[in-house]
Amino acid sequence: MDRPSLTPFEIIDQLEKEFNLECVPMNWPIGDGDEFQGVLDRATMDVHLFQRGDRRKKITASIVPYSNTDLLIDVIGQQFYDKLTEDIEMLDSLIPAPDMNRIQNGDQTPLFFGSAMTNFGVELFLKTFLSYARRPSERIANIDNIEDITIPPDYNEFSGFVFKLQANLDPKHRDRMAFIRICSGTYKKGMKVNHNRMKKTINLATAQSIFAQDRESIITAYPGDIIGIHNPGHFAIGDTIYTGAKRVSYPGIPSFSPEKFCYIKNPNPSNYKKFQKGLSELLDEGAVQMLRDRYDDGNGNPILAAVGQLQFEVVEYRLRGEYGVDSKMEALAGFSYARWVGGGWDAIERAEKDGKLFGVQIVKDRWNRPVLLFRNPWKVTQLDNEETYLKLEPWAM
After folding, report:
1. pLDDT tens across 86-103, in order?
2. Helix, coil or strand: residue 128
3. Pairing between strand 46-50 and 187-188?
4. Mean pLDDT in the chain?
5. Could you say which DSSP state residue 120 is in?
6. Please, what's the b/e burial string for 361-394 (b: 16 or more CB within 10 A of its CB; e: otherwise)?
7. What is the mean pLDDT of residues 115-142?
């Protein structure tokens, strides 16, 4: 609510249409932008008042019960009180109550309002999240190449998977962190684990719990916990680590299908190493995906692929701010759809011989898998229906 925007009801309507997901506001904003007064906690009917201060620090809130009409009007004014009262009546009559079963099935979602610039309202969200969060559940994995084996949280061996990478959490030390969700067993400081993809044993010397700028060393952790491990380049998103003689592999994490493409260039050759290092680490995080022209041997300009333009701007900003290098983006105009070719390069050659790839650009990803770029959805549908041997997929694991 830091800037004037759509009304809360319009935001709910937009979210429900976009995601086909019923939204249940757990708190309700009073004003927005410069007139933001705070939020009403619908569970307790307490008004948490927003107090302006240093944006770099967390903003504390004073609490006034909604039932204390005189005090509340004195603090927020008659106009905001009347609007809040009207909104509450509409919420109670139009918005359903939160349903735990529907929330956990993904049919309904709690919705919170607050201030991103000051973290106001975050505490309310976290308290509700803790009360709504599910217990660690069983997960499907491959064990010794046998698919669809269920691993419960109380499985006697440790296992977990990497779901996020982050570089430069502390810019002074240029550290890289891999975030691992524990699925079974117990983490203990200094334990040795098997790395599924690298097929080697690594030592988890230290682990950290990270919340915003705060870090805390972890001695033990359990299923459902998330631990941060120093990453010297061993981990990629989707990697599985485990103990025991049986090889465990959790399903990979797919990337969003990109819709924007651009060449990224290094305008200063003297910064080649820093540019490559920065780009490689940002790619490892999954901030964007990288493609290359079909016959590029690695010396050409890479193609960045993203869902939206903002991701390119983030890459450009972080290269400059965290690695001290400039970059130049050149849009790959006209292409808006990408499909990975499950049939491999043999399928590409077959389609080319049959003249089926006219108007389609052939590129490859970081693992040399073929990718087709399309200008319109009609061509995507045509190839998918007529040339089934291509096995087109909107993403790759």
Report:
1. 999 999 998 989 998 898
2. helix
3. unpaired
4. 90
5. B
6. bbbbbeeeebbbbbeeeebbeebeeebeebebbe
7. 85
Angstrom distance (rounded) from CA 216 to CA 289: 32
What does the alpha-carbon distance between residue 373 and residue 245 come to, in Å, rounded to a whole number?
A: 42
For residue 108, which of 116, 99, 117 has the smallest C-alpha distance?
99
Cβ atoms of 303 and 290 within 8 Å: the answer is yes
Q: Which amino acid is at 50?
A: F
Structure tokens at 105: 């099935």
* CA–CA separation, 14 and 16 (whole Å): 6
Q: What angle do CA 7, 131, 128 make, to 5 degrees?
A: 25
pLDDT confidence of residue 397: 66
From CA 53, how far away is CA 236, in angstroms rounded?
40
Q: What is the pLDDT of residues 260-272, one digit of tens each?
A: 999 999 999 999 9
C-beta separation of 260 from 309 below 8 A: yes
* Joined tokens for residue 259: 């819709």
Take residue 283 and report the two structure tokens written for it: 């790619």
